[in-house]
Amino acid sequence: MKRTWIMLLFLTASSALLLVACKGRMPNSELHQHPDSELHPAEKKGKWGFVNHKGKAVIRYQYTAVGPFKEELAAVCSGGELDEARVSPFYEPSGVRNGKWGFIDRNGQMVVPQKFADVKSFSEDKAWVRAYQSDSVLGSWGVIDRKGNWLVQPQFKGGNLYQNGFADAQSEKSGLWGIIFPTGQWAVPPKYQSVQQQAKGKAIAKDKKGTFLIAFPGQRELAGPYAAIRSFNDSLAIVVNPEGLCGVINIEGKLLVPAKYKTISSYHEGRAFFESEGKFGFFDSAGEVVISPKYAHVGNFQEGFAPVEKAGKFGFVNAQGEEVVPVVLDGATGYTHGQALICMGCKHDSGGELTYGYPDHFTGGKAALIDLEGKVYPIEGKEPQVIKNKRFLLQRGISTFQMDTLNQLLKEITPISLEDFADQ
Question: Which pTM value belongs to this model?
Answer without folding.
Answer: 0.73
